[in-house]
Amino acid sequence: MSFSLSEDHEAFRKVVRDFAEKALQPNIERWEREVGGLPTEAVNGMAELGLFGLTASEEYGGAGADLTTLCVAIEEIGRVDQSLGITLEAAVGLGINPIATYGTDEQKAQWLPDLVAGRALAGFGLTEPEAGSDAGGTRTKAVLQTNASGEAQWVVDGAKAFITNSGHELTSVVTVTARTGTNENGTPELSAIMVPTGTPGFVAEPAYRKLGWHLSDTHPLSYDGARVPEANLLGARGRGFAQFLNTLDDGRIAIAALAVGLSQACLDHSVSYALERKAFGQPIGKKQGLAFQIADLQVAVEASRLLTYKAAWLKDTGASVKQVKQAASIAKLYATEAAVSATRTATQVYGGYGFMEEYPIARFYRDAKVLEIGEGTSEVQRILISRGLGLPVE
Amino acid sequence: MKIVVCVKQVPDTWAEKKLDASKTLDRVSVDNILNEMDEFALEEALQMIAAHSGTVTVLSMGPDSATEAIRKALSMGADGAIHIVDDALKGSCAAVTSLVLAKALERIGDYDLVISGSEASDARTSVVPAMLAERLGIPQVTFVNKVEVDPAAKTLKANRITDDGYQVVEASLPAMISAVEKMNEPRYPSFKGIMAAKKKPVETLSIADLGLEADAVGLSGSWTKVNDSADRPPRSAGTIVEDEGNGGAALVDFLASKKFV
After folding, report:
1. Which architecture characterizes domain A242-388 according to CATH?
2. A259, B7, B233, B255 - which has most CB atoms within 10 Å?
């Protein structure tokens, strides 16, 4: 039994940490102020390091690495900035993975090389203004029609909400789930369709003004008779939702890793600040009131990390789908709630300065909350965990 | 082109450096890294073979733990490495280091270019590249921030940084150059590179393999010796000048006294 990462993973962690601290960290505050969205410069840097292609196969320029490796990268990027961590997570988990998993050889050859190299970004549109956790309530529809030249095309109409990497200058395609009919049992038939950027009728609306994640690219999307070739169907017709759920387990583990990075950042900052900041003539770390909070913070970081990497390890070592799903939900639930709490502790340690944008703590505080919402809310995770236990929860 | 890049493992730039009982640097109780200046040397070599084709061999002298720095160099893209490791080497001065490296380079043979960082961040003597070139009998072009090689003509043209500006110099190959920082932007190793590094050849040599006797190297063979050392004095309180209309002049006097202006 071993609780440590392999030598390769550790060597890679050092590289990503070095990159994140030298190439990203010094620019974050300026990017938040001046760019106010996803800086292409940051994407280029992560791309050069090969981060977008970590888990993709070598055939498409990837490194063929395991999920643990991706988690290490997301944790280390997330330790410096959550927006860039989620950008990487979404680019791989939601952009690349569905195409790599369900795409035809033609689709993979067309889209993956640029996505894997980080020259382009792809989004995945599932959530709608009125369908979040209840993805089965999808209203966007796609109808197969034959155009004047006799080509079969999907005509997509509808709207999507909160879609990451969907409207950036690097965005090349957004895969969207849509109703393509009705199943025999009366439920909607959902399929996944790839809609390239620039398709007439497909518009990425202006980016959201968000509480946090200011450097990530998030847009509402609208589809008004957007036409794409029939061949843009991703995976089997009627399997759009099921396919998405299958790729979501990895995403949950990756989000847990992003949360671990945030908690670790809070711990690192809190320890150094508690040693350096003096009150009543002594470092504030001498006060039990603060020291104990920081001690609890480390407990939370360690627990989060163990749950996260155990889930990744289960996935990488071919454990059963049921085991992976349960572990992914447990890790995502625990690590994200711990991260929200960690930012509260760090802000308390920093006192008034923790509320000032000059310090990263305020940004961490703003960035944390969405971790309990994206890629399955805490409530959804609790439902899944309950069901995994055999409880007949609704 | 066959390029050899000399690299050294050094204590992390921010680590507090201490001497051990033998008055040599304690390399055990600190985190060690690949000397940052050597990364510029390696990057330059990698760019050269990308442009002109060839191989990059990393050459390092150091204890067992130096394999970590060597592996980093390999993961950045070097093709193979030679690691000179021998207990007798501990405490070697710059002159002895250059002797050992020269023997290794003679063994490698038919190289076109040897590149190293212009200094290691631990001892900071900056003399090893010059000594090494002298021992090898090849041109030395030190403190280079820009270089162009012409493998066909077997020449190079380089900018050497000096106190007054820079010199443009030419040399025939094989030659030795030492790189200054900002010469380029060293790449980060990719995960692929890290995995590939494990499969790259690392040859380990002892001083016997290089035809050297134990008493010719290490503390006993060194030309210099540390007799004594003292901790850096604690930072003193500095001088406070009350500005009574003469603040500017006092500031200039101070800077002039330190030869800043």
Report:
1. Up-down Bundle (1.20)
2. A259
